[in-house]
């Protein structure tokens, strides 16, 4: 038996460590540990509910608007409010812009630089991947410039970013004026040009229209084509075995109908999402145990740093006691 420790992963927020016990070439035990106590669940206890609009987005400086929107929608549900249609559209546009920026930030700054390390110097794609070398690659400066310009969209829609207070339970506090539309469209066109040139090497619609593995394999343009070549050469799709469960909450509501519906995908079957079956397990967290895994709204967050079976400060979210994958893939499915 050998032990492999990978970490800390500290590129965005906090620290993460992965510990694997390996025997005969197979993982026998895996632990993912969050080594930094955060305790965000306790920040709003005893405070006026509307404080969530200022406190929740400061959980993260990368995806602050998503937290703002979640807080605003929770307060709207409590008050029985329905956002004004145009306010809902502005929220959707702003949140989608933040998601796009976050995906590309992860790709350009946190993910692709790993393939520019000396360990891959003998791979057939190494010379092309060198543009993503951390701190020195030629792909990062154009991306950062494009991202900075793109984030002006957030300023135009929300007044400021991050941590905007324009997001409210009834929608947004400012309307997009007629004279602001042309500058916003100009920002989108400029960013689209960056996507076509650097990311896809073609129109995003053409990439999205790829409907088979063969057509995907034939795509050679931009950073997307480079990544596909790397994935094939390194057999990346064989890594990361999972339990075959995807979970998605409704996203981008528009007059009661979300762009992405909620649901669960399990081994090919599409099932309705039972939000009541979501619970957090603190068995291996340095937190006081409850009698059973609890739904988030009933969760208890009290530190117990001497807990014998603890190895992380994070609770384990579970769907009916099982792990499920969320995020972009789940939403698309």
**Unreliable spans:** none
- So what's the overall shape? globular
Strand arrangement across the biggest beta sheet? 1-2-3
Task: List how many beta strands DSSP finds.
Answer: 12
Mean pLDDT: 91
Classify the secondary structure makeup into a structural class.
alpha+beta
Strand content: 15-25%
Proportion in helices:
25-40%
- Rg over C-alpha atoms, rounded to the nearest angstrom: 22 Å
- Rounded to the nearest angstrom, the distance between the terminal CA atoms is 38 Å
How would you describe the overall organization of this protein?
Helix 3 runs antiparallel to helix 5 (140-150), helix 3 packs antiparallel against helix 6 and helix 5 (140-150) runs antiparallel to helix 7 (178-199). The protein has helices spanning 52-55, 64-79, 85-111, 126-129, 140-150, 152-158, 178-199, 204-208, 213-217, 222-234, 328-332, and strands spanning 2-6, 16-23, 26-34, 167-168, 171-172, 245-248, 251-254, 257-260, 263-266, 269-271, 278-281, 316-319. The chain is built from eleven helices and twelve strands. It has a three-stranded antiparallel β-sheet with strand order 1-2-3, with no helix packed on it. The mean pLDDT is 91. By secondary structure, the protein is an alpha+beta fold. The radius of gyration is 22 Å and the shape is globular.
